[in-house]
Amino acid sequence: MIKKKAFSGGVHPHDGKELTNTKNIKIAPLMKEYAVSLSQHIGAPAKAIVKVGDTVLKGQKIAEANGFVSVPIHAPTSGTIISKNKKTSAGGRMEGGVDSVIGPTGALVPMLTISADGEDTPCNDLEPILSWQDCKPEDLKQRVLDAGIVGMGGAAFPTHVKLSPPPSQNIDTLVINASECEPYLSADHRQMLEDTKGIIEGILIIKSILGIQKVCIGIESNKPDAIKAMQEESRKHNIVVTALPTMYPQGSEKQLIYAITGRKVPMGKLPMETGCVVQNIGTAFAIYEAVVKGKPLYERITTITGSPIVNPSNWRLRVGTSLADALTLAEGVKNPDDIGKVILGGPMMGMAQFSLDVPIMKNTSGILLLNKQEVTLYTSGPCIRCGSCINVCPQSLMPSTMGVQIEKERFELAEETNIMNCIECGCCSYVCPSHRPLVQLFRRGKSEIQANNRKKKV
Ligand code: SF4
Ligand code: SF4
Q1: What is the pTM of this model?
Q2: Quick one: average pLDDT of 302-323?
Q3: Domains in the chain, start-ordered, CATH in brackets?
C-alpha cells in the first residue's frame, strides 16, 4: 500500500526516467586516462601518497584520508601518474606536486591523472572478509573507511562518520534511501533490479555495525519492479520495504525519515537526533563489495541521459572517467549545436558544467544533457508575493522572504529566518512565476553566514 502524502510541500517535475529505466547496466570499457579528484567527499581533501611518474595498480590507495571527516582515494586502473593540467580546458595549476584543476563545483581541486597501461592489474590490498558476521563492528567500520566509501546518493559524506554516532545518541532504525526522486536518473532503480542480493548483504553489514534490528527501505511508487525485487529479498531478513508516493524531494533525508517513521527532525538538528541513520542503496552495495570482495570504491553506476543523447543508458563507470569519454559510451549526441546544458546529477539539484574534461566522482549519479529549448533562459523579476514557493517548501521555510534578505545582504536576518535549514532542493525556484534565482541566493547566503560564523570564532 502507498501512502497518499508523505511530507508537506514538494513538486512533481517531468521525470524523464523512461529514457533509461528499462536499460540494463553496462560495464564501461577501459579508458586511456582517468583524472581522479582527491576531493570527492565532504570534508578535507585526501592527501596524495603517489607522485608524477609513479606506477599504480587498480584499487591501490593513491591518497590517504586527511582527518576524521575524509576518506582515502584509490586508483581506478593500473598505469602511470602523469601531469596534464596545462592541457585541460578546465584550467588549473600545480600545487605540492599534484595537479590542481577546476572540478565539478567550479572550485580548484587536487587531481591525480592516471595514464592507463591497458593491463588493469589489481593490487588486492584489501582481503575479502567472507565471514563478516564474526567481525567486530569496529573492524567492519574500519573496512568502510579503508575502502574510501562515501554517500553515493549525492551528498558524498564519509560513510564511516555516519556509522559512528556518539554513544549518547540512541540509534534504533536504519532507513535505506532508494527513492531516487531526482528526475531522469535510474541508476539506483537498475541497481535494485540487478544487484539485489549484494545490496541486501550490504544493508545487513550496516545493521551489524550499528547493532540495531529495525531496517526500512523507502522506494518511490514509480518503480514497482524494484519494489517487488527488493521485497522478495528483504522478506528473508525481516527488512521492511515501504512504497512511497512519487514526489520530489522524497529522497531528502528529513523527508524520508518522516515518511517512513513519522519522526520529525527538529530545525537545526541532524537526522540522527530522531534515532535514525540514513544510507543510500548504492552505498549499501559499495559496502558489500568492500567487505565481501575486498574492493575499494573506484567505480559506480551512472545514468547518462537526456534528449540530445543518441543512446541514453546506465553505466558502471570508473571514477575519473571524463564527461567526454562517458558521452562516447552513450554513442554521443545527436546535434552538437543543440546542447543547452550539461549537468552532473539530476535537473533539480545537479550542477551545470562548462567543460567536458570534468571527471566522474564517487557521487556522480547522472550526466544529464538538455537541449537549447529545454533550458530556455529567463529574466528574473521581483517577488510578486504569490506564496507559491512557501506552499512547496518541504522544510516549511519562507523562500520569498529569505530571497529578499539575501539580495539586500541582510545575512543575519536570513539566519534568523532559518536559511541554514534549506536543503537546496530547488522546489521554490521550480514554481516561482518571477523566475527568481532562489536556490542560488540561498547558496550564497549560507556561505556568507558560515564565513561570518567562522570569523566570530577566531
Ligand atoms: S530550496 Fe530551500 S527554501 Fe527552496 S523549497 Fe527547497 S528547502 Fe525550501
Ligand atoms: S514564488 Fe516567487 S514570486 Fe511567488 S512569493 Fe515566492 S519568490 Fe515571490
Answers
A1: 0.93
A2: 97
A3: 1-27+120-377 (3.40.50.11540), 388-457 (no CATH)
